[in-house]
Amino acid sequence: MIFASDLDRTLLYSKASAARDCEDMIVMEMLEQQPISYMTKEALAQLQQLHSEMLFIPVTTRTVEQYERISFLQASGIAPKYAVTSNGGNIIIDGKIDREWKRHIAQKMQTTCITIMDVRKKFQEISGDWILKERTADELFFYCVIDRSKLPQEDVETFCSWAKEQGWESSLQGRKLYFVPSAVNKYEPIAYIQTLENEPQYMAAGDSQLDYCLLAQATHAFVPAHGELADNPHPFLETTQRGAAAAYEILQRVRALSPMKVAFS
User: Fold this and answer.
1) What Gene Ontology molecular function terms does this protein carry (predicted)?
2) Any idea where the domains of the chain sit in the sequence?
3) From CA 148, how far away is CA 132, in angstroms rounded?
């Protein structure tokens, strides 16, 4: 059985999103010699056990470089064979980027959406002091760090509707606003890996609209009780816990449903 999970705000948490004191949590990521991502001790222990029982696949909107910063996973004995990064634009297999998948995505983008250059050009029409930073991710999509108190709601909604007609999806996650081609999604890489591994089923977890397609095809799908999906009606299994405590609950429930656990219960 595969467990495909989003990372940030699902398994990993910043100080701002943890909803608890981080001093007793395990540091999972450092940037410029500062800790920036954490897991609870209990959640990490569950993930270590799950990794020995199932095929754990991180599925993240992080770029390849941002994913590789999470070096503490391997230090904790968790070395995923597969990782899906760049919102599905890249698959890492045994530490190396799958070039065949990368070519597939490039070809698909050419036929299903307008270019990132054209989308960013149109986006400039609504840009303003509400945008603090704008970044391109692995030349596949772009995102902005924003001041939500200044967000021009109507203008952004109009732009998102236009972008969707051009083959681009949008997602607001905390202080980050993402614009991603529909061709670059989190489900299709998992379907590809299922074929490679001959695994017909998978379980999944995620907190944002960009996770929806991944969750929708899963045998069991979990959503933490915070974030973009929890704020709207959804058909998935929702945790009772919020913040970093939700990660432990998700992992515990996934392990309880794993075929290995069921077989020996």
Assistant:
1) catalytic activity
2) 2-105+184-264, 114-181
3) 10
Q: Could you give the CA distance from residue 210 to residue 178 in angstroms, rounded to a whole number? A: 9
Question: What CATH number was assigned to the domain covering residues 2-105+184-264?
Answer: 3.40.50.1000
As a whole number of angstroms, the distance between CA 244 and CA 161 comes to 33
Angle between helices 116-123 and 153-165 (to 10 degrees): 160
Q: What is the largest CA-CA distance in the chain?
A: 59
Question: Which one is the CATH code of 114-181: 1.25.40, 3.30.1360, 1.10.8, 2.40.50?
Answer: 3.30.1360
pTM (predicted TM-score): 0.93
Residue 264: its pLDDT value, please? Answer: 37
- pLDDT given for residue 262 in this prediction: 46
Task: Give dist(CA 192, CA 82) in Å, integer.
Answer: 11
Q: What is the pLDDT of residues 67-105, one digit of tens each?
A: 999 988 878 889 999 999 999 999 999 999 999 999 999
Mean pLDDT within 193-212: 97
Report how far apart, in Å, the C-alpha atoms of 182 and of each of 89, 109, 117, 168, 255 are: 11, 8, 16, 5, 31
**Residue 152: phi, psi to the nearest 5?**
-80, 85
Measured between alpha carbons, how far is residue 20 from residues 34, 85, 119, 127 in Å? 18, 28, 38, 34
